[in-house]
Give the backbone structure.
Amino acid sequence: MTDDRRGTVEPRGTTDRPGLAVIGAGPAGLAAALAAAARGVQVTLVDAAPEAGGQFYRRPAAGLGARHPRALHHQWRTWERLRDGLAAHIEAGRVTHLTDHHVWCVERESGVLVVHALLGPEQEEPVVVRADAVVLATGGYEKVLPFPGWTLPGVVTAGGAQAMLKGGLVLPGRTAVVAGTGPLLMPVAVGLAAAGAKVAALVESADPRAFVRHARVLAAHPGKVAEGALYAAGLARHRIGVHVRHAVVEAHGTDRLEAVTVAALDTDGRVRDGSEWRVPCDSLAVGHGMLPHTDLAETLGCRLDGVNVAVDDEQRTDVPGVWAAGETTGIGGAVLSLAEGRIAGLSVAARLDSRAPEPSSYARPANTRAGLREFFAAVDNVCTPPAGWAERIGDDTLVCRCEEVPASAVREAVDELGAGDVRTVKLLTRAGMGWCQGRMCGPAVAGLAGCPTTPSRRPFARPVPLGVLAREPGESP
Amino acid sequence: MSNSLTCDVVVVGAGMVGAASALYAARAGLSAVLVDRGPVAGGTTGAGEGNLLVSDKEPGPELDLALLSGRLWADLAAEPGVAGSVEYEAKGGLVVAAGPEGLTALEGFAAAQRSAGVEAESVAAGQLHDLEPYVARGLAGGVLYPQDAQVMPTLAAARLVRLARTAGASLRTGWTVTEVLRTASGAVRGVRTPYGDIHAPAVVNAAGTWGGELAALAGVSLPVLPRRGFVLVTEPLPRRVRHKVYAADYVADVASDSAALQTSPVVEGTAAGPVLIGASRERVGFDRSFSLPVTRELAAGATRLFPFLAEVRAMRAYLGFRPYLPDHLPAVGPDPRVPGLFHACGHEGAGIGLATGTGHLIAQVLTDRTPDLDLAPFRPDRFPDPSPEEGS
C-alpha cells in the first residue's frame, strides 16, 4: 500500500479540472467514472471492495484460477470493456481508484463535497476525499422476509448464494431450494445447478399471469423476455421444478437445515389449506427483491421518492453537486445502472464546465433508462410478497437477528404499547438497533406493524470510531 | 364520522409527560383519554436520553419539581415489574471539573443545591477513578449526585401509558386534534379529531414542542419553541461508564439563552450496553437535517472525558427538539385565560425527569386538591401576549 492512498486526496490532482468523486464501483459507478473521465474530468472512484465490479461483476479471487461464469457471458463482455476502460484511465492518470475504502458519510461544506471513508478491512484509519461533484452509486441490498426457521444454518439469501458462487465458487449446500419472489431467483437457481448442486425446487410466490396486465411493457422489451426465456431453458435443462404461486412457509432442522415446507397460495396470497408438502434440502436460498442503499443521500439531505433517491433527467439529486445512479435511485439491474451511470457522468462533465449537457449526447442511455424503468416497475408490481406473510411469522421467530428480537415483541409493541411505525417499534424492542441498523429487519418490522417500508435515517452509513469522528477533516491524529 | 366519546379529561400528547398525566389522572379516579397524532413517544420523548436529573438544576421551582419527580419515579420503580421494563437505573450523576476555577464554581453550585435538599458529595481528584475507572486523568475534581437516575424514555412512556390503561384510561394514537371545543362562555368542552369529537370538561396540553400550536387552538398564546439536540449512540459495550458523567460547563449551557450551537460532553452507559453521548443545543427551528460538525464536537468532547471512547464506534446518531419556554421553566397547571385548559409542556430537555411530578400536580389540580408545589412560577400566562404588530 502506497502512501498516496492515505490522508487527503484531491481529485483535481495537478490539473485545474474540477473533480468528481464516484462512490461505488459497480456498473453505475464505473459507467459514471468512465463517462466523466473520457471528457477530461479528474475522477476519484471510491469503493469498499478490493476490486472494481460491485456485486454484479463479482468474480472469484485471482488465486482460485476460475474460468468465466458461463451463464453471464453476454454481460461478461460489457465487464471487460469497463475493466479495460478503467485500467486505461488509471494509466492515463485521469482516474484514481481507491479500493477497500468504506464511506461512512458525505457532507457538503461551502459547496465542496467531502467524502469520509475508513480504510479497510479494519476500518479504523480515516481517508477524506474532496470533490466538486459526487455521484452516489451505492447500489442496493437484499430484502428477506422472516418465516419460521429462517435463522437455521443453511438458509442463505438468494443474493448471498449468488455471491458465494461468483466470488468463491462455493456451493451453499448439495441440495438446494430457491424461494421468495423476484427476477433474481431464476439466475440463482440456474447458477446453483450449473455449479453442480441439485436444485430441488424453485418456489416463486408471484403469479406470472399477473404480467399479462403488463403485456404492453413486456412486448416492448423482447431482450428482457429473451433473458427470461434463457433462464427458463436453463431451469428445464437442469430439470428444476418451478412452483409459482407457492411459498416456503417453514424451514425445518435441529442444528441446521434439513427440509422446508412448501405450500400453495390462493389468489389472495393466503396459504391453501392442506397444500403443504416437505422438500428435503440442506440449503435454502431465499430473497424477496432488493432495496436501495440511500443512507449517504439521506444524510446529504437529498429528497427521496419512496425508498429511492429522487433524481432528474440528468440523474441529479436536488442537492447541488450530488448525482445518483443505479440501484440507489430504484432497483433495476445492471443494464439500467450502466445507462444511469453514463448519463450521470456526462452530466457531471458538462455541469462542471458550467454548461448543460446536450440532450442528444445521452439520448441512447436515456432511451434505455426509460424502457427499463418501465419494465422494472412492472416487475415490482408483480413480485410483491404474498398477502398474509406477516401473519405467518411465528411468535417465537426472530425478526431482528442482531438484537434477537422475536415477532412476539414486535407484536406486543404494536398491540399493547402504542407503536404504529418502524421507529417506535425499534425504540420499544431494539429491533433494528444492532450491527446492521435495521437493514435486514426493516421490511419485516414494517409488515408486522402494518405500515409501509420507509427508509430509516442512518447518518453514519457504517459504524465510525469516535476518535475518527472527533477529528476535523485533514487533521492528523 | 359521528363517533363521540365522553370522559373527564382529554390529555393531548402521548409522550412522557402526557403518559404520566394520564396515569396520575386515572389513578385519581378520572376517566382519561390520551390522544396523539402519531404513535406513543413519537416526538421529543423518543429522541431523548431519559435523564432524571437534579444535578443540573439550580435551587428554585424547577429543582423543587425535579426532587418531587425523583421521589415519584422511585415510587413507580418500586411497583412490580416497572423498574425492569423501563430500564430504571438509580445510578447517580458525576459532574467533573477540568481545572481549579471550574471546580470552585461547581462546589459553590453544589453547596446551594445542598441547602435546597439535593444530595451532593464532593469528590477529590484522587477519588474520581474509584467512581469512574475510565474517566480522563488530570481532572480537578467533581461532585457526585446520587439522586440522578435514568430510564429508557420510549419504554418509560409506553409502560406508563400501559399502567394508565390498566387504571382505566384509554389511548387513541394517530388521532390529530384539529380543534379545542369550547362553550359559549369560552370554557373547554372537549376536542375535535378526524375520528370524532371527544367531550370532556378538561383538556391537558402535553403536546411538547407543539404545545404552542395546541394552545393556539384553544385561543391562547404559549411561546413554546424547539431547541435542537443530537445524541450519539455507540456500539454495545460491557459497562465502562457507571454514572451519568458530564463536564461542569453543561449546567451553564442548559441555562443559556444563546441561539448559537453549544455542546458540552454528557456521557452515560445504558442498561442495553450502548453509551449515549450528548449534548448539543441549537435554536434552528424544526430543521431535521443532519450536522456532521455537531456530532464531531460531541465526539470530541466525549473522547476528552473518556479517552477509551476514541476506539469505540458510533453506530448511529439521532436528533430531537427540546420544547422550551423563554424563561426555561415549563408551563404546568390551569390556564386562567380558558377555564378547563391545563398545560403540561415546555420542559425543555428535562421532560422525562419532570414528567412524574408534572403528571401528579396536574392530577391534583384536576381533582381540586391543593398541589404539592406552588404552581405560580409555572403559570402558562406569565408571558406577554404577542403584540399585534408581531403577528401571531
